[in-house]
Design a protein that fits this description.
Radius of gyration: 11 Å
CATH class: Mainly Alpha
Structural class: mainly alpha
Largest sheet: none
CATH superfamily: [2Fe-2S]-binding domain
Helix content: 55-70%
Number of helices: 3
CATH architecture: Orthogonal Bundle
Shape: globular
CATH topology: DNA polymerase, domain 1
Order of helices and strands: HHH
Distance between the termini: 25 Å
Number of domains: 1
């Protein structure tokens, strides 16, 4: 997902918090949870897709 890396750490922290609260978020859930993060590259669609992929990936112990 990253282009320039400016927003990466904040995006990751928000995504992890979302997935801990909601393991199968909808697009609306993701948009709401990620609303406070600004991406200079405008990769919001790719960020949303990455969160959906992460939600589908089984967690390792």
């Amino acid at each position: 997902v990253p282009q320039c890396g400016y927003c990466q750490s904040g995006q990751i922290m928000s995504a992890v918090a979302l997935l801990k609260q909601n393991p199968k978020p909808s697009d609306e859930d993701i948009d709401s949870a990620m609303a406070g993060n600004l991406c200079r590259c405008g990769t919001y669609q790719r960020i949303r897709a990455a969160i959906h992929r992460a939600a589908e990936t089984p967690a390792k112990a």
